[in-house]
Write a structure and sequence with these properties.
Blueprint: E1 2-6, H1 10-21, E2 25-29, H2 33-52, H3 58-66, E3 68-70, E4 83-86, H4 92-105, E5 111-114, H5 121-125, E6 134-138, E7 148-153, H6 161-171, E8 175-178, H7 187-190, H8 192-203, H9 209-218, H10 226-233, H11 235-248, H12 261-266, E9 302-304, H13 309-320, E10 336-340, H14 346-353, E11 360-363, E12 372-377, H15 383-394, E13 399-404, H16 409-427, H17 433-444, H18 450-457, H19 459-473, H20 482-490
Helix pairs in contact: 1-2, 2-3, 8-16, 16-18, 18-19, 19-20
């Protein structure tokens, strides 16, 4: 194809590099001619570097460089242009006026695509003479490495155009997912599950920033903890996205922002780019504080309360570590009591099972087979018993993070929110289940797509978790989605799109 990329900034350069590498001819234009020259030089350096590292043949890199055509003006006439990809200022008026000019100078067959990350595609198209020509193509930075593109048809986009462009994107080496024109589209929307719940945990003082990040990495397997991620992205950007999506979905409780962010943004605690966020940065910033040493008695007698698979898995793990485990059903006057909590709190278990409050602690079942175990401590716990409980869980070389007793503990809350937000996207029909998982793994780097992740836990077990969270906290943010509840009761996978009523008319 002959593609015109308008906007020679970071995104425009990346899109141009992606397109010429895939074999397309790319016209690159910008309001500033100097920016075009800088962008062309940058893309050619990237192509040279790819050849030096063996990612491209030398001849392929040279051919790609020759297919990059600088323009004197972004709205220059172009009879052969088949697709325009706009990557200019994130401003509705600026984008609309640009596309109006392009409508006048390019053939009626040219498809117009916006790389907007936050503006509704339909609103941009509404200002055009031919709104059916406009569609969203949302790339992610850095474009050559973030191999996923959201294809977003607006309300008036020509039928079939989304499928055509998705195939073009796939043929050019990136995954393509078709997404409804809604706030945050897909990846930014799905990403709210992790960060909004992490901020909620911080609000409740369930655990400090470092503890939440360690649990996210070592228990859930995320590459970065949520607070590390917000510091990388910039809290000013993250907070704006959170607010925009929450407002766009009419103040959905599941997407509720935190009261913590406005003051931190106003104080300039944006993260890496300002030198301080949830963590300090810069050459003089202290490194992460080491975790406190284990000081308790790992040989103290311990029993596991409760029955079922979670209790059984915890007993087996403790036995393998050589813990002084009491036989099932037996107790000792000074033994520790470990409770595998699932969507509930240790305090509730103490009350309902009549456990000794000073010696009872929670263990997150998600952490039992992971490098880091999570210990929940109630306000009634004896400090010596808490140290001993950490020592018992640390035996066998495990790291142990102690957190405040809260319904579901930390990892369960984060995972439940990640799956719930994705399930909400699926049940609204904003994207297909397979596309949700493809987009999130490629765009956010999660170890599993959120719906597939829910299937690893099990729809029934997840429904049990979310129902317990709702019952214990009363917070509607934990309300199970219809998608999870239906599939749990029908014995279906969360990744299964299921049968719609239209099947009855086929």
């Amino acid at each position: 194809m002959r593609i015109r990329v308008v906007g020679a900034g970071v995104m425009g350069r990346g899109i141009a590099q992606w397109a010429v590498t895939a074999g397309h001819t790319v016209e690159l234009g910008d309001a500033r001619r100097e920016s075009v020259d800088e962008a062309v030089a940058f893309v050619r350096r990237m192509l040279d570097r790819a050849a030096e590292k063996g990612r491209l043949d030398r001849a392929e890199a040279d051919d790609a460089a020759r297919r990059l055509v600088p323009l004197d003006a972004p709205d220059a006439p172009g009879d052969g242009v088949e697709l325009v990809i706009e990557a200019v200022l994130e401003d509705l008026t600026v984008k609309t006026e640009l596309f109006r000019r392009l409508e006048e100078v390019l053939p009626a067959t040219t498809v117009l695509a916006t790389n907007t990350s936050s503006l509704p595609v339909t609103r941009i198209a509404a200002g055009l003479r031919e709104p059916e020509r406009l569609i969203g193509l949302h790339f992610f930075n850095p474009v050559p490495l973030m191999k996923v593109v959201e294809v977003i048809p607006g309300a008036r986009t020509r039928p079939g155009l989304a499928e055509e462009l998705a195939e073009t994107v796939r043929a050019s080496g990136h995954a393509a997912v078709t997404v409804a024109d809604t706030p945050g589209f897909l990846i930014n929307h799905a990403g709210r599950g992790l960060v909004t719940e992490a901020l909620a945990l911080l609000e409740e003082q369930a655990a400090p920033v470092e503890a939440v990040d360690r649990i996210a990495r070592d228990v859930l397997g995320l590459r970065m903890g949520p607070f590390e991620l917000m510091d990388l992205t910039g809290l000013d950007v993250t907070a704006k996205v959170i607010d925009t999506i929450w407002e766009g979905f009419r103040y959905s409780e599941r997407l509720r922002p935190s009261f913590l962010t406005p003051n931190r943004v106003a104080a300039g605690l944006h993260g890496r780019k300002t030198g301080e966020g949830f963590y300090p940065y810069g050459p003089d910033a202290p490194g992460p504080a080491p975790e406190p040493p284990v000081t308790g008695d790992a040989r103290r007698a311990v029993r596991v309360a409760g029955t079922g698979p979670h209790a059984r898995a915890l007993r087996e793990a403790l036995a393998a570590d050589g813990a002084a485990l009491l036989p099932e059903g037996q107790d000792a006057p000074d033994s520790l009591v470990l409770v595998p909590v699932w969507g509930d709190s240790v305090a509730r278990a103490v009350s309902e099972l009549d456990l000794p409050r000073e010696r009872s602690f929670g263990v997150d079942p998600l952490s039992v087979g992971r490098p880091r175990r999570v210990l929940s401590v109630t306000p009634a716990a004896d400090p010596v018993a808490a140290r001993d409980a950490r020592a018992v869980l640390a035996a066998g070389g495990h790291a142990v993070t102690a957190v405040r007793d809260t319904a579901g503990s930390v990892a369960q809350r984060l995972l439940s929110s990640i799956v719930s937000v994705a399930a909400s996207v699926a049940e609204r029909g904003l994207a297909r289940p397979a596309d949700i998982d493809t987009a999130v793994t490629a765009g956010l780097g999660y170890p599993h797509g959120p719906l597939a992740w829910g299937d690893l836990v099990g729809a029934g077990r997840l429904l049990e978790l979310q129902s317990a969270l709702l019952a214990t906290t009363g917070d509607p943010r934990h309300r199970p989605t219809r998608w999870v509840a239906e599939r749990a009761r029908l014995g279906m996978a969360l990744t299964d799109p299921g049968t719609g009523p239209e099947a009855a008319y086929a």
